[in-house]
Amino acid sequence: MLDLPFLPFCVLLGGLGFTCVAFVSAWCQHWRGGFAVDGSAQMFNWHPVLMVTGMVVLYGAAALVYRLPPTWRGPKLPWKVLHGALALAAFGLAVLGLVAVFRFHNDHGTPNMYSLHSWLGLVTVLLFSCQWLAGFSAFLLPWAPGWLRALYKPVHIFFGSTILLLSVASCISGINEKLFFSLKNGTTEYKLLPAEAVFANTLGLLILLFGVLVLGALARPSWKRPDADSPDSCQVPAPLWGPAG
């Protein structure tokens, strides 16, 4: 892999995350009629916006907290709190997103939980809730012994990446499902690629790219925080901007 400096990568990733949120908001505002809280189709539009913002962008930011070089020195508690707070904010947005879609379905007599997208999305949120509670209990509360934290840490890391992957898959399948349902019966069919289809397909690709870059950053050895008890714990953090001079 190229020896990329971390901070420019973060700026790029932050811009990409902002673009994802801007795209999903523009899609819902321009083509889907905007936003409301009255159980209408406009209330449903909160669902994709909140899910992309929470389960993809904010969750991705939470996952990368320990890749910041400043976290490699000093106490870990402030960074643990930041990591947990970002994940909790992502979970809160996801819950609001579920409220929006269930309220819309119930008010319009639409069955809940019948599509693969809905199954995948609910499993992702439930798995995320278990992940957050287990991480809070093991790493933030003082009663967990060191051996238990060491045992659970690789499990926590594995499921963190898995949940992000499931979140990306849920968002992409939801975009595709919404286009299939919307672009028919009097509108330009999806297969004819009207402007909305091109825009929403591009949104899906941006979300996929964001997820791939986050997973790539998590897998990059030189960006991992050294364990305090490992021989690499005194290594010098990677440069923020790249080689000087």
From TrEMBL:
- Residue ranges annotated for the Cytochrome b561 domain, each copy included: 12-219
Its main subcellular localisation, reduced to a broad class, is membrane
Residue ranges spanning the membrane: these are 6-28, 49-69, 81-104, 116-143, 155-176, 197-219
Q: Where is the signal peptide?
A: none
Q: How is this protein situated with respect to the membrane?
A: Multi-pass membrane protein
Q: Source organism's superkingdom?
A: Eukaryota
Protein keywords: Electron transport, Endosome, Glycoprotein, Heme, Iron, Lysosome, Membrane, Metal-binding, Oxidoreductase, Translocase, Transmembrane, Transmembrane helix, Transport
GO cellular component term, pick one: lysosomal membrane
Q: Which reaction does it catalyse?
A: Fe(3+)(out) + L-ascorbate(in) = monodehydro-L-ascorbate radical(in) + Fe(2+)(out) + H(+)
Q: Provide the residue span(s) of the region labelled Disordered.
A: 223-245
Q: Which GO terms describe its molecular function?
A: metal ion binding; transmembrane ascorbate ferrireductase activity
Q: A Pfam family this protein belongs to?
A: Cytochrom_B561
- PROSITE patterns, per database record: CYTOCHROME_B561 (PS50939)
The yes or no answer to whether the keyword Transmembrane helix is present is yes
Which Enzyme Commission numbers does its entry carry?
Answer: 7.2.1.3
Q: Which cofactor does it need?
A: heme b
Q: Where in the cell is it found?
A: Late endosome membrane; Lysosome membrane
Q: Which SMART domains match?
A: B561
| Physiological role | Transmembrane reductase that uses ascorbate as an electron donor in the cytoplasm and transfers electrons across membranes to reduce iron cations Fe(3+) into Fe(2+) in the lumen of the late endosome and lysosome. Reduced iron can then be extruded from the late endosome and lysosome to the cytoplasm by divalent metal-specific transporters. It is therefore most probably involved in endosomal and lysosomal cellular iron homeostasis.
Subunit record text:
Homodimer.
Protein name from the UniProt record: Lysosomal membrane ascorbate-dependent ferrireductase CYB561A3
Q: Which organism is it from?
A: Anhinga rufa (African darter)
Gene label: Cyb561a3
